[in-house]
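Tokenised fold entry reproduced for everyone:
>
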Amino acid sequence: MIIINNNNSHHQNIQLKVKVMNHWLNHELLNIEKSS
């Protein structure tokens, strides 16, 4: 039951992590392009 109650916030946490990962990956790709 706790899992069901926390499902929404858990989903939001995953979305936030995905956004951060995408931002980080884009940043890393830009750095690689600049250095090459």
The radius of gyration is 16 Å. Residues 1 and 7 are 10 Å apart (CA to CA).
